[in-house]
Amino acid sequence: MLDAVNAERAKAGLSALCTNQKLANAAARHSKDMAEHNFMDHIGSDGSTLSERITDAGYSWTMVAENIAAGQEDVASVMESWMNSAGHRANILGADYTMFGTSYVFSAQSKYRHYWTQDFASGDTEGCDNGSSSTSQSTEQTQQEQSENQQETQSSNDINGTTTQNYTSPST
Q1: Domain residues of the chain, as ranges?
Q2: Contacts of 16 (CB under 8 A, 6+ apart)
Q3: Which of 59, 61, 74, 93 is the most buried (most CB within 10 A)?
Q4: Architecture of domain 2-168
Q5: In the 8-state DSSP scheme, what is residue 131?
Q6: Residue 164 in contact with residue 85, Cβ under 8 Å?
Q7: What is the pLDDT of residues 147-160, one digit of tens each?
């Protein structure tokens, strides 16, 4: 997934994102929640928001955004959906974001079966995993048979089974 995101950023003349495990953990938490509770929304089943999940994961952020999707079976399909949506494309091509975490969860007995989360962020005190860009991603697969004081700046829905949401820290 990071390779696909960075390929789109390179086409736009933007610098590559690097992975951050805290962001990957927040993304995994949300993808797993959506799959286990059979929904697709930026608000978690426990009422958590994007900014709360990122903060709970220990990431000190100045700017965060999230793309979620459900139903697309592979990276190429979900990236095509996101790149064909202005809000999602804006997150992927956000020049102010420096770090990335992603998660995919499959649940055969849920409505959409495939759940995707991308978390984008920048933070003054956060670093990249291994100090550089990486192609790793957080991926969880769960099959039942196998096993704010933040300011909301954008939220939109589109017909592709995807949504996007962004937050910025309030000015201090």
Answers
A1: 2-168
A2: 6, 9, 10, 133
A3: 61
A4: 3-Layer(aba) Sandwich (3.40)
A5: G
A6: yes
A7: 222 222 233 333 34
